[in-house]
Amino acid sequence: EDEEVVAEILGRRFFPDVIAYKAWEGFHFAGHEIRITEATDCYGAVVWPSALVLCYFLETNSKQCNLVDKNVIEIGAGTGLVSIVASLLGAFVTATDLPELLGNLQHNILQNTKQKCKHQPCVKELSWGIDLEKNFPRSSCHFDYIMAADVVYHHPFLDELLLTFDHLCKDDTVILWAMKFRLENENRFVDRFQTLFDLEMVSNFPSLNIALYKAMRKGRMKA
């Protein structure tokens, strides 16, 4: 079953027939052809398989996870694929990442959502753990969903990542997080995450070494 679903997920990716002056990859999600411009010299400008897993979940579970008119923030949005799919499914999306990635992120989002979405997504800078209250004040920022794909890997900002999850998450916020398991140090982040949040594995793909989690604040999952 894992291999069949993984084949379906990876089958959503396609490549141009003719090499253009700008490298791009194509994807089929939410009834649309999505073209993503990438850069191979930066982790954040490449579409990783975890993003495909999350997009596939959003599309195939649109009834139990209805995004229409929901307020969604994606952290570490990278190329913007997850934010684009969430927008095409009716959400009001804020796509965030580091300042050096915002140009390509904005380009991809505009190219794939303009006049196609109920709510035009916005792009905003978010450096994990920095100026959170200033840029995303708790009193006025309320997100129904926080989405993250492949934000845990070998980088020195895992503490700041956890702080960001904590800051953005209200009592009724749902976190959807696709994670590729790599090294033990990063894997231990899951244990630390569970000190603040209840965690439920929604999907597991051993052949990709990727798990998709749903999380809420401690004690709020059943409520």
Automatic annotation (TrEMBL):
Domain of life: Eukaryota
Keywords: Methyltransferase, S-adenosyl-L-methionine, Transferase
Any single biological process term in GO: methylation
SUPFAM superfamilies: S-adenosyl-L-methionine-dependent methyltransferases (SSF53335)
A GO MF term: methyltransferase activity
Name under which the protein is recorded: MT21E methyltransferase
Natural source organism: Copsychus sechellarum
Classification lineage: Eukaryota, Metazoa, Chordata, Craniata, Vertebrata
